[in-house]
């Protein structure tokens, strides 16, 4: 991590790295500076560094680095200079948007370049093959390669900025501006998925704002400015959602606006409420909720009439006509007919919720259908004077569909009116917030209402009607649509009718279904059979004779006595049972009482425990408050002492000070002191710079004089030293000459001594040289002998190894040849055996065929009764012959039968040998083939 003495040095270093193409290193250097704890005091240089930092992040698409740097910069300048953070964030978003636009323009240019007639002239064959294989067009590829990365980075930029600016009262204006730009981005490029995520992000920010109420610098929604900013964001979200046709997200935006209004207990401006109800009308119309659509239109009409002073009569008439037609478009029957209790409760809850969104307050205990209904809305329109503002065509439609009765030609009367109102509509000139009003959108619903009214009138007049006649009475709809409408109306008990397609007619009236008629057919059959049986066999009356009564009286008395005794015993048993039940009930009541007493005791114990816990919490809270009060007083005394020492005014008295307020006051004082100290340091640094500059300006002349004086002194010193060196050199030379003259008399002795030493050293050198030569020759001779021995040994070892290898190869070759010969012999032997077996099987097949033919001949002879039975002669083919196999049982028959000739000689085998053994019946079965 690089460290810099001043922030300016880091900026210069980053610019140097950028100039040599090392943007990553420059970005890392600036990131280290921004995240360092040494530079926590804001100054103008940090703003310049942040500008350069965000430029690098945008160029390299480093969203994570940008987020970290902006978070650190927010910490630095949040309390000192918030406008600097706003400038940096605006610059960051401007750069990201500009890059995205450049990428889009580049992609458009590439698309225009590809849009030519002759593709072979502008593209290579490889490109054409790639385009056909990949299956995507040039625009899709260019968008994916060029536009998509920058759009992703731009979207990440918006998310990062919103995350940094969220829930901060000092940055809420910039937060709102960023949200608006993000909405416009989603609208411009049709980014529906990103729009849903953006709405969810803003929704989570508001939820966290309500959840964590002890945050520092938390926005106050009760303030008009903050509330207006938050509402503007939600209304912009609502507008974009409707323009992108994201109706579910638009409804959630409506819920967000309504929740925000309920939260602050304040109604927004009428201009915003007009937008609110105008979008509600669109949402309810798309969702086919015609009743809520009509109520939203009614609220919109009320707002426009009350607050819009520029509203013209034509616009008012158009809005009133829309309100009345929307109310008429609601189906005239209740859709909850025959619904279950759960469906009714869900419908009630839904009506309460929708009434809250529209602006109606309902009583939860009262049935909401009585308030939010078609009849209630129409009566309210009449009471509020809406009928007086509508056009004449709409009035005629209203009277025809609602007040006229027994009109079988209703369709012919309303159809021209429908054609007239379908041409009425347009943009309101005096109400720009209201969407374009077109009365033609209500024509299908009005046609459906006219169809229902005709069916209702026809059901009262006719009992049976032809389908063609009904189709002529409803000319604006075919019969399939009329059939669907009638089925729905019959389902909810609006019209009682039945369509018989087999007879092409319609039956009207309260006709039950076949299942209702068959439900009690068995009961009706039983009653009818009882009546028939009574008519066929009427009951006979018994004769009343006194003798009969007297004779049966004793039996009756006896039976009555037994019945009374039995009744008495039954009463006793019932009493005992009752007493037993009473005892059981008393025991159960006692157990319930004990259980209830136990539950009461446990509840009392829990209450006492909770009361004790609550008192302890109150005591602890009171102690904490007392301790905080003492700390606050001590902090207050310390602050007052510091203020008196510095000559400042004391803290404001007369208010109830808390520890939190004192801490905030102390922090603000510290911030002020730090700012004052920074200002003093900057002023001192500026003064020191001026002093240093003035001192250096005054030093210039003095330094030049001192330099010239120093040059003169150096020249004098140099001359003095030069003369002293010359004098010393002369003295040394004179001493050396004197010494030479003194030693000249020993010159001859010196030569004699030197020659003797040289001769001795030469003799010693020659002797040592001869000894060295002799020693070298001995070493050379010994090494030659060793080398010769080593060569002979290596030759012998190599020869022996080659001989062993040759013997091993010859042995392997011999074994291989023997193995091949053995395998060849085995194959020949196996082939001979197979040939012999084949010949043997052929012979056996021939013998079996001959034996079969013989048996068939014998059977043919035995089946002829007229011919005498003659002994069967052995065919000549079965006579024994040499070299022909004869089965054992035939040989035995031939040798053992009486009167037979001498035995045939034994058959020789295939190798020329004869079997001299006699055939024996005890020979095993394996010898049959010898």
Automatic annotation (TrEMBL):
Biased composition (Basic and acidic residues): 907-930
Keyword field contains Ribosomal protein: no
Annotated region (Disordered), positions in chain: 811-830, 858-930
Any one GO BP annotation for this protein: formation of cytoplasmic translation initiation complex
Localization of this protein: Cytoplasm
GO cellular component: eukaryotic 43S preinitiation complex; eukaryotic 48S preinitiation complex; eukaryotic translation initiation factor 3 complex, eIF3e; eukaryotic translation initiation factor 3 complex, eIF3m; multi-eIF complex
UniProt KW Electron transport keyword: no
InterPro entries per UniProt: EIF3A (IPR027512), eIF3a_PCI_TPR-like (IPR054711), PCI_dom (IPR000717)
Any coiled-coil regions, as ranges: 93-120, 561-642, 667-697
Keywords annotated in UniProt: Coiled coil, Cytoplasm, Initiation factor, Protein biosynthesis, RNA-binding
Molecular function GO labels: mRNA binding; translation initiation factor activity
One Pfam assignment: PCI
Chief location category: cytoplasm
Subunit annotation: Component of the eukaryotic translation initiation factor 3 (eIF-3) complex.
Task performed by this protein: RNA-binding component of the eukaryotic translation initiation factor 3 (eIF-3) complex, which is involved in protein synthesis of a specialized repertoire of mRNAs and, together with other initiation factors, stimulates binding of mRNA and methionyl-tRNAi to the 40S ribosome. The eIF-3 complex specifically targets and initiates translation of a subset of mRNAs involved in cell proliferation.
Family: Belongs to the eIF-3 subunit A family.
Protein name: Eukaryotic translation initiation factor 3 subunit A
Species this chain originates from: Acorus calamus (Sweet flag)
Lineage, opening ranks: Eukaryota, Viridiplantae, Streptophyta, Embryophyta, Tracheophyta
Gene: TIF3A1
